[in-house]
Amino acid sequence: MTSAVGAAGTAPAPQPPRAPTPPATAQAEAFAAALAAAVGQHGGGTATGLRLSGHARERLAEAGVSPEGAQWEAAGLAVGRAAAKGSRQALVVLPTCALVVAVPERTVVTALSPGRMRDHVFTGIDSAVFVN
Question: Domain coordinates of the chain in residue numbers?
């Protein structure tokens, strides 16, 4: 019969058991979305916590849409809902425009006016949120 004995004639020290990593839950995802929203509000974005890329600013100016008011609050909430579902790239459709948003960064990548939305194919998104 053999036994595990170290070079100095002693048995090796037992290793403590590793704690299992808990799975991500909806509550953890909701907290992450709320944290991202709070961080976004202090990171140079709009009052909703959404940041605008330069390209999105140009497109909104062309459409005559201002990133403020009740619609933008609704857009911020829509992005939060998309984040809670695990979305990475979302299409947020507002009455005045459509926004493609990088959800984890809460950054509006581009915006389209209703006229430009017609016959447009949106690619690279994993969710869509319609806001009234």
Answer: 26-130
